[in-house]
Amino acid sequence: PRPILLTRHGESQDNVRARIGGDSSLSDTGELYAKKLANFVEKRLKPERAASIWTSTLHRSISTANHIVGFPKVQWRALDEINAGACDGMTYLEIKMDMPEEYESREKDKLRYRYPRGESYLDVIQRLEPVIIELERQRAPVVVISHQAVLRALYAYFADRPLKEIPHIEVPLHTIIEIQMGVTGVQEKRYKLMD
Ligand code: G3H
Question: Residue 36 burial (CB < 10 Å; 0-12/13-18/19+)?
């Protein structure tokens, strides 16, 4: 069995301001997580020479991998956060106030709701297909440093959770979800590195 480690990027400037989307850098807290993650990965994967680190193309994801040395890094557009289109950079409160119909439709069907000029969860699930195929093919461990919506979909695939649950799965910050795929099925461990 070989592990797949899933984690969100460290806390970003936009997380602090409660803004969705964007391409902000890490907060000081997020920066600290990046260091702790590097430490963890080095200890956990040291003997596993062929392991690789996959990030999205967004700053907060790439920076979270910054302190991890000695493993190849791969950037995937397909690991970028759900595209919030016209709502990119807004807070949920601003969306509720300025675009109440959008807010409502998303509340009603978060899985199918597509942001104006952006994506739905279903869109994200679809674009993740090549990532999943590649993850399945890998024999060595992979550390995936991505984003909340994307990780909900990836996690649901490995943990065999139903489609309708995906937009509501909890994927907390600063926590590593370790998936082990063995003959008897999938095992999961969580490591909360900080609050
Ligand atoms: O920025 C987007 C969030 O990570 C996705 O969260 O789908 O629960 O709004 P949400």
Answer: middle
